[in-house]
């Protein structure tokens, strides 16, 4: 079977070998194993999940691809409708519903999960919404699509982001093209304005927590490279990019991050988080990322 669906998770199996494993909790992708075009014999894990991650649905998973909606970052949130929400909103800590298989053929395996307000969500968030997460596995790439529908009359304002933990030797990673882009540096408590990126390639050799704005440009494509490997991240309707790695300086404070885990990934997070997506009543919005192997 190309798709296995158990109580708490779904496994997608591509006919050429790649697999994706995800939890219904958070529509959270835990694993993506794929071959690279340059080395088709090698089927390897492309995401990082901490050995100390909680996988029982009692806390967000440290690693993989968390989905952030409707608010990014820690409280206090500036938006009045987000005042009761915790860090990164609720999408990553709710159990989604397996909706359907969208494709299952020689080229593509794709499924859709959905989430609508639950009693638990209504305690902290009063707006109506419908979310769908479409996960598409192809031979050398993985696509996440978040669809947001506003069934109400009033506009819905939200943040959306894919908090992807890309497995990589973090000290050797370079991310482009961010030169000249404005960013908010969350590691610098002494400066609350926007900095301008001066580097051709952004590294995460030191603790990095940078929220770049309006980076997607015409192409919406980022390159993440390291010696002997890399990925391209192609985005749609996600104008901003967050780059995060705590390194030794902050990593030990992240309680569910394994010792030294910060050396094994870089978070490259396409999102719409500087300002809000404003979605008119009765309309839908789609944001997506496609991660392709070099
Ligand atoms: O996206 C970067 C970030 O907001 C960092 O500030 C950070 O600490 C991180 O996400 C992880 O957040 P979490 O809630 O998963 O611990």
3D structure, described in words:
This is Glucose-6-phosphate 1-epimerase. InterPro entries: Aldose_1/G6P_1-epimerase, G6P_1-epimerase, Gal_mutarotase_sf_dom, GH-type_carb-bd. Pfam families: Aldose_epim. It catalyses: alpha-D-glucose 6-phosphate = beta-D-glucose 6-phosphate. The chain is mostly beta strands. It is 3% helix and 45% strand. The protein has helices spanning 119-124, 247-250, and strands at 3-5, 9-13, 19-23, 28-36, 39-45, 67-68, 97-104, 109-115, 130-137, 141-149, 156-162, 165-167, 174-176, 182-185, 195-196, 208-212, 221-226, 229-236, 240-245, 265-279, 284-293. The strands form three sheets. Strands 6, 11, 12, 14, 15, 16, 19 and 20 form an eight-stranded antiparallel β-sheet that branches. Strands 7-8-9-10-21-18-17-13 form an eight-stranded antiparallel β-sheet, with no helix packed on it. Strands 1-2-3-4-5 form a five-stranded antiparallel β-sheet, with no helix packed on it. The chain is globular. It starts with a strand and ends with a strand. The mean pLDDT is 96. The structure holds 6-O-phosphono-beta-D-tagatofuranose.
Short descriptors:
294 residues, mainly beta, eight-stranded antiparallel β-sheet, 2 helices, 3% helix, globular, binds 6-O-phosphono-beta-D-tagatofuranose
């Amino acid at each position: 079977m190309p798709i296995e669906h158990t109580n708490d998770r779904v496994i997608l199996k591509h006919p050429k070998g790649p697999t994706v494993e995800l939890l219904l909790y958070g529509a959270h992708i835990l694993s993506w194993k794929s071959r690279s075009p340059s080395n088709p014999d090698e089927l390897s894990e492309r995401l990082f999940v901490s050995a100390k991650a909680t996988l029982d649905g009692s806390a967000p998973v440290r690693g993989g691809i968390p989905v952030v909606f409707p608010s990014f970052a820690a409280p206090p949130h500036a938006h009045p409708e987000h005042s009761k929400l915790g860090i990164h909103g609720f999408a990553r800590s709710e159990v989604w519903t397996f909706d359907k298989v969208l494709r299952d053929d020689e080229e593509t395996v794709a499924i859709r999960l959905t989430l609508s307000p639950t009693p638990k969500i209504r305690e902290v968030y009063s707006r109506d919404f419908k979310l769908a997460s479409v996960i598409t596995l192809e031979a050398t790439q993985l696509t996440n699509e978040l669809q947001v529908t506003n069934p109400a009359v009033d506009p819905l304002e939200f943040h959306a982001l894919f908090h992807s933990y890309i497995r990589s030797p973090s000290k050797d990673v370079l991310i482009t093209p961010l030169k000249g882009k404005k960013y908010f540096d969350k590691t610098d408590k002494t400066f609350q304005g926007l900095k301008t990126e001066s580097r051709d390639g952004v590294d995460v050799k030191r603790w990095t927590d940078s929220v770049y704005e309006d980076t997607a440009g015409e192409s919406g494509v980022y390159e993440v490279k390291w010696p002997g490997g890399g990925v391209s991240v192609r985005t749609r309707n996600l104008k901003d990019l967050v780059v995060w790695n705590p390194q030794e300086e902050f990593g030990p404070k992240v309680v569910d991050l394994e010792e030294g885990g910060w050396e094994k990934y870089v978070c490259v997070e396409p999102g719409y988080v500087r300002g809000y997506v404003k979605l008119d009543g009765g309309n839908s919005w789609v944001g997506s990322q496609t991660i392709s192997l070099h």
